[in-house]
């Protein structure tokens, strides 16, 4: 708590960087303090917790010499200014979702998820062994940022609806709290996308100002209580077959960081990222049971809705690709990788999973 | 190469431990050399490579002070004596598959995979957040070993068959190179399980001494060339919906290890484990394409075979549970976790994956 108070006290002063300058003499393990600001509030304890876990890992690996202080949205900068705060060196590092920054370039979407894109394991494979991370870092590099993958929330749900959505016609005029690329696709199907901060979603759904809202998945959604006012819980969130987070690091600060500390950041981020997915898998499975027991009505999106969304996605992406070479490079890479992955996935993983699902239902 | 020669030169001498003794005065980062022996040969470059990657990570995190030398099967001990070599402190650490040691207790199977068990992500979630690792470490602890998860090969294929297997009757008398728990289940269906070292499988298949052989998945299987003599490539390997590897550490050596180095081991193993799965996903997808192009005939196991195998598995596990409380504790934990996971998986992940598979086929 004192740290937060200190921060507020220092708020008027120049707080560009709290890093303790390394002495001119090369020192492989200097005392160092960095700041990490995240887009995710403490209430999203899985995502926020990954930042705490990372900071602890770095301290544990460096014998407490390299300390990272974690700040939530609004403590240093607002949630959606994390990328810029890192680029400007207001903080040395930040945790955010790449697709929050599609205003800069729609290509940013590929760092998190695109509609009908990769699933969680495919995303990890693409980033590490499909050239994905390299192409993304070329993009981030033009903003003075170096990105390290920081964990995946897994396939997300399609959101909470006040009424059942039985066909494509039911989407016309529907006010849906949904952001980013999904909003752009869905507007082609007649939906009116709404941008509403998390804290305002519940009253908007209750009053009927909006008809539906998507958030993340069972564990995170449960806390916002949408169930009471919009009980139809649709799946899958085809715009987020996975959602990958990033740790963004100021490129100049990264270059200055002793190699030993660079190794710690890379290795700890890899461990924290894997842990995040394990945590989501464990918690979501328990949460969906509680939600259904409390009255959530699970509904799959109909095939005509999925097919029309798939078509609209391909049309949008073809249009953007024709004009934006950075987008096209990432799109072509993602889609080629996705198609090859699903050709394999259908053989072994899907056959195994589908058999197990059939047995457990029986 | 010199390291290997040195090892052979020293082979007659006492080589119980090459660790440089830490001075009596507490020292958080002493110079230290440990040995890691793995069950997996260099030809399995994905698995062996994980050991090299781990050793490099530990060196990189410790400013080269903590060095780990990696040895393949036969260099220090044979492949299936890794666990005992660690328990006896012949080496400080080893990499192996828990189910190689079901001769000690069938409960060891749960550390790798059991028939109709967890998939890859579910295994990670169970180990970290389902209590799985704690229960496994109680078991390993009775042998003086501490285990750290070390990566998953993902769902494995069902193996290469000389002839098509169209129904349950085709299994009767079939000589199948398959090990462990799967062999015990399959023998209840009339199969005659065979234990053959990797290098002898190809000639045995060619001569017809055996009718079929399972190994791992497309990337690893491709190298052994089974395609030419047993072209029917069956899926899924329902006895390995995933296959988790372990890093085994001598408990006394672990207790002596400075906390700083313990942190490095835990965090680096987590990163290496996640990387292994990403590597398998990328490589298997490319390999299955090559195998099919070269003539591999993909075949799913028929439902009557899967159903009979599922039934035989449940019967075997109920029998063992009645006599073996350690097995029962791990079985009950695994199955409860699996059932909850698949109830969630069927909603979001499977619906998304199955839709994508349908689109990509179209």
From TrEMBL, chains A, B:
The positions making up the signal sequence are 1-21
* Listed GO CC annotations: tripartite ATP-independent periplasmic transporter complex
Q: Where does Na(+) bind?
A: 215
Q: Which Pfam families match?
A: DctP (PF03480)
Q: List, alphabetically, the InterPro entries matched.
A: DctP_fam, SBP_TakP-like, TAT_signal, TRAP_DctP_sf
Binding residues annotated for substrate, in chain numbering: 156, 177, 214, 240
Keywords on record? Metal-binding, Signal
List this protein's GO terms for biological process: transmembrane transport
Q: NCBIfam families per the record?
A: TRAP_S1
**SUPFAM superfamilies in alphabetical order:** Periplasmic binding protein-like II
Domain of life where this protein originates: Bacteria
PROSITE patterns, per the entry: TAT
Q: Would the keyword Signal turn up in this protein's UniProt record?
A: yes
What's the protein name? ABC transporter substrate-binding protein
Q: Which organism is it from?
A: Bradyrhizobium lablabi
